[in-house]
Amino acid sequence: MNQPPFDLVRRQRPDDTSPELLLRRQIPENLHDLRHGAAAFQVDDDLAAAINVALAVGAPLLLTGEPGTGKSQVAYYLVHYFGLETNTTTNEWGQPYVFHVKSQSSARDLLYTFDTVAYFHAAQGRDGAEIDKRRFIRRGPLWTAIDALRGDLPRRAPRPAVLLIDEIDKAPRDFPNDLLRELDQYTFEVPETGEKVERPKGVAPPVVVITSNSEKRLPEAFLRRCIFHHVEFSEETLRRAVEVRRRAGDLRRLDDNTLAAAQQRFMEVRGQDLSKKPATAEFLTWLTALEAHGVTREMIQGRRLPLVGALLKDTDDCKRFA
Description:
Blueprint lengths: L18 H5 L5 H4 L1 H4 L7 H13 L3 E5 L7 H9 L15 E4 L6 H5 E3 L1 H9 L12 E3 L1 H10 L11 E5 L15 H4 L1 E4 L4 E4 L8 E6 L7 H5 L2 E5 L3 H13 L8 H15 L9 H14 L3 H5 L13 H7 L1
Parallel strand pairs: 1-8, 1-9, 2-5, 5-8
Antiparallel strand pairs: 3-4, 6-7
């Protein structure tokens, strides 16, 4: 089945437009799925050293850097590197166990959630009979990671675990401090049931990757417990990312001269005083759009930057190049 044309939407609606065209769009999986991009991800020596330190001392790895520099990808890379993508018994996807931090997240959400409303309704209809509160508990990513170490997951043997706590700087101020003991000892209690959850003795703790876009300062006590690494954006990182995508079969229709022109123009854009500088993720998205549109080197080198909305995310920034 052929890929639909790039310009599906035009000022004047063509006669051959149909819903089928939307379904036939072939979107590169590597752009939006960190799991698919894990095999192609590359670490530099400094990042590898930070990972190895975190593994050696059993501490969380805290990664900072510009949005789009591949911080979250590191957790998926470790899952791929150590062969944890699927469970050999059930052949199911699972790792890394991911906690996407939101502005209203609490530390307990990483551990478990208790459905108070459902429990209340169940208690009303039991005439004082005891109710098993465990029915109303949903295990969070950290609890699940500890279960993996203990072999407590259904039909699964004990295995290592990788946990990703993504964009921790979005959380309320007390969130990191409320996790000091849990991320240091990997043990916690569940007051609703009196249960104590702890990693088995003699077993290495989960590999914890924490990302931050540095939107706000994290508490000193929390930072002290982490191994820190700042992911720097560099032209070499950009070049490696393109090489990896091409080896994976992407961007094949862009010749070397066009790619070189795109990278040069991208670095020129980043060198400007912008409200939001584009990073590696925006560059790869832009290249994918250029390829789909059939953009040439001459178009890239022109005064007007083609498909500027794939790179820049601020009105004034876009006006400067459009």
